[in-house]
Structures are given as C-alpha cells and as structure tokens.
Amino acid sequence: MLALYSIKGGVGKTASAVNLAAEAAAAGHRVLLWDLDPQAATTFYLRAKPKVRGGVARLVKGKAAFDKVVRATQVANLDLLPAALASRELDHLLAERRDNQLRRILKPIRDDYDLVILDCPPSLSTLSESVFASVDALLVPIVPTVLSLRTLEQLRDFLDARDIPCPVWPFVTLADRRRTLHREIIASLPERWPLRLSHAIPSASVVERMGLERAPLRAFAPRTAPAQAYRRLWEEIAQRLA
Ligand SMILES: Nc1ncnc2c1ncn2[C@@H]1O[C@H](COP(=O)(O)OP(=O)(O)O)[C@@H](O)[C@H]1O
Ligand SMILES: [Mg+2]
C-alpha cells in the first residue's frame, strides 16, 4: 500500500495518484485507488460520483459491503473507492480503532488487489496518522521550491518525533529545468533524501487537461513528457516494491 501524501496542497498529489495508479494497472497489477480527500478530485478524474450509500461505516462490515462501494473505472485493472467516504465519519471510525486501521479496514478485499494507492488530503490528522501506520511508503511530491522542501523537513520531523517508521519517498513534480533554482534544488535532493525517487515530473499544461478529459495522461496523451515521466516513475517504484 502506497500513499500520495504532503502537508501542502496543490503539489500534484492527485495528478500523481491517478497517473501512477493507471501506470500500475497498465503494467498488469490489480489496483485500488482510494480517494481520501473530501474535495474528491481523484473521484472526478475517474468519472465517478463522490457519493456512497450507507457511508463509511459500511466498509468495516466486510467484503460484501465493500463490493457495493468499490467502483470499476474506465481504466482496466483500476478500481476506485470514491471520496465521500473521506469524511468526519471516517475520522471517527479511525479514532476508535488503533494503529494501522486503514490496513485493517481493507483486509476483506486484500486478496482482490495487488496494490492500494491512497490519495490523501493535505493535512496532519487522525487520518494521516492512520495512513502513516498503514502504508509501505509515503510518496511525497516536491515542487522544487524552498518552501516545499521545508514542508518535507516538517513531515520528517513529525515522523521522527513520534517514532513512526514510515519510509518517505520524495519525488519532484511541476519541475521546470529552465529555472536555475529548480535545477539546483533537484540536484541537492539525493544528499538529504537518499530515498528520493529519481524521475521528476515536468510542469506541462497537458497535466491540467486531465480535468477536461477526466482520464489519466496515458489515456489521452501517452507520448507527452509528463506521461512518460509517470511511466518511468512507476517503474522505479515497482522496482523498489519488488
Ligand atoms: N506536472 C504538472 N504540470 C502542470 N500542472 C500540474 C502538474 N501536476 C499537477 N498540476 C496541476 O496543479 C494543480 C494541483 O495539482 P493536484 O494534483 O490537484 O495537487 P494536490 O492533489 O497536491 O492538491 C492542478 O490544477 C493540476 O492540474
Ligand atoms: Mg489532491
């Protein structure tokens, strides 16, 4: 299980969750993408409705209940748990259970998927603590700016202070290699962040078109630089998971 996570909003978590999930699905993995952000952008990109009858309480009731809320998407091998489950209700559910609750909630469908990807809201909350305890790694998008690096340090400090052993795998998004500062920040990453993923996602307007096409890049612009960067990024992640 992986999470796209950052304390910061607008850094490409959702774009990355959708594109990486689509790449993993295209590589033949059975993927479940869980939209944990009440803003429901992932749900929108995958053409689903952010409404689930019975609500989140239903999820803990086992596999039959799960099958009623999980949606197939237009992408083969990719299923979606829509937002709207991401609510105060979910926070309550997580608060009353301990530790790796998300993993436990997903237990009934563990055998149905090879990979679960969580698209997280930009916050530190009960939900994020449960994410930290449940995932194999946090994929943290970094826009190459000083402030973005600072929030990465803040996340590191938070995890260290609480002895949370969750690996942090930063990767660069919205990169503009024409800008000196971007190049410098990208070059400085490996020293401080040995676990950083090496493939950067370039800044390109085609990524914004995902909102119009309501599809991952590989479905409508597979030859563009960001689509290929996401494919290579996924291959790098897959190698680490193997
Ligand atoms: N590589 C990119 N190039 C250009 N725009 C991007 C890129 N990645 C994301 N965006 C745009 O930036 C905005 C924020 O991205 P999003 O994935 O929603 O961030 P988050 O989920 O972290 O809030 C969106 O409008 C999205 O289309
Ligand atoms: Mg988002």
From TrEMBL:
<dbReference type="Pfam" id="PF13614">
    <property type="entry name" value="AAA_31"/>
</dbReference>
<protein>
    <submittedName>
        <fullName>Cellulose biosynthesis protein BcsQ</fullName>
    </submittedName>
</protein>
<dbReference type="InterPro" id="IPR027417">
    <property type="entry name" value="P-loop_NTPase"/>
</dbReference>
<dbReference type="InterPro" id="IPR050678">
    <property type="entry name" value="DNA_Partitioning_ATPase"/>
</dbReference>
<dbReference type="InterPro" id="IPR025669">
    <property type="entry name" value="AAA_dom"/>
</dbReference>
<feature type="domain" description="AAA">
    <location>
        <begin position="2"/>
        <end position="159"/>
    </location>
</feature>
